[in-house]
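Retro notes (design track)

What went well: tokenization of the new backbones is finally stable.
What didn't: we kept losing track of which sequence belonged to which structure.
Fix going forward: every design gets posted as structure first, then sequence, in one message. First example under the new rule, 311 residues:
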């Protein structure tokens, strides 16, 4: 089965500015594919090329195994997208918006079918409320319902949690996961919020200044033997003395007051905790720091390029 999206050597130049610079990646069926990069990294430019809103300077795009240049209409009939904030009719209700967008897509859907779409994004109880009364999170969910109205195979979401409060972010995160696991959609979601990609994506690409820095499955992108553990204690002098006399001495990276940083394999964490307790160390907290953020910063500050095998 071919990948849902295959991008080869894609570039977009604006005179001397290389917005996207020779990137290649694949999105497999059923992926929640994270498109991660800082603001201005080239994420939105790439997505606009995927949706044929702008033309690439060089490179090729295939979606569902078809060249986007030759089969544009056929491809886009199976794609739903929300680019930044969704365009909605504020003085129409949620149901009326869906009804209108379905008609614009050439679909004849009953209100019962449209209500099922609203239920999918947890807006069925506000179906008859005017959109101008919605929170930004509710507008985002309605925008996703509009993108899903024609039951696309591929869903593309560009910064879907921008401007949302914590509850709105959690709602969108849950919806993205459900689209993949429960409804069989392939989802490409771009974000500069590292934690959101870490919590939702199965595979991802990291881009920086238009270039691909890494691509692969999340579980393959972190070396568990190099996890950084932050240990905060109530008795730092005693802790330092005990660590320097133990097998953990060589793994101690630094100490700042009552905070110790230890580089170790994640499988050794239970043994570390047991040893600390036996040493009489008063542990206030212990948590890993080797997260997507650490990995992302290591790539974007050192300009490394890493490819990981696809699943």
């Amino acid at each position: 089965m071919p990948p849902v999206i295959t991008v080869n050597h894609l570039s977009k130049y604006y005179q001397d500015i290389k917005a996207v610079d020779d990137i290649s990646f694949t999105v497999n069926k059923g992926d929640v594919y994270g498109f991660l990069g800082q603001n201005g990294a080239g994420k939105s430019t790439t997505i606009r090329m995927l949706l044929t809103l702008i033309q690439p300077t060089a490179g090729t795009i295939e979606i569902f195994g078809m060249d986007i240049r030759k089969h544009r209409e056929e491809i886009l009939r199976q794609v739903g997208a929300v680019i930044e904030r969704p365009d909605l009719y504020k003085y129409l209700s949620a149901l009326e918006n869906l009804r209108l967008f379905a008609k614009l897509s050439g679909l004849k859907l009953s209100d019962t079918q449209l209500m099922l779409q609203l239920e999918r994004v947890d807006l069925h109880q506000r179906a008859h409320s005017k959109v101008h009364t919605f929170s930004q999170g509710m507008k985002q969910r309605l925008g996703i319902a509009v993108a899903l109205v024609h039951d696309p195979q591929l869903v593309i979401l560009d910064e879907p949690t921008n401007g949302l409060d914590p509850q709105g972010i959690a709602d969108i995160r849950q919806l993205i996961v459900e689209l993949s696991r429960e409804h069989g959609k392939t989802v490409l979601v771009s974000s500069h919020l590292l934690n959101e990609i870490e919590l939702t994506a199965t595979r991802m690409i990291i881009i920086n200044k238009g270039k691909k820095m890494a691509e692969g499955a999340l579980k393959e992108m972190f070396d568990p033997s190099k996890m950084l553990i932050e240990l905060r204690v109530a008795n730092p002098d005693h802790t330092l003395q005990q660590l320097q006399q133990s097998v953990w001495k060589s793994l101690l990276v630094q100490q700042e007051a009552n905070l110790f940083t230890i580089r170790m394999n994640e499988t050794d964490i239970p043994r570390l905790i047991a040893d600390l307790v036996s040493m009489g160390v008063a542990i206030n907290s212990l948590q890993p720091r080797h997260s997507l953020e650490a990995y992302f910063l290591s790539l974007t500050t050192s300009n490394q390029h890493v490819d990981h095998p696809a699943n």
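Added context from the reviewer: The chain is about 30% helix and 30% strand.
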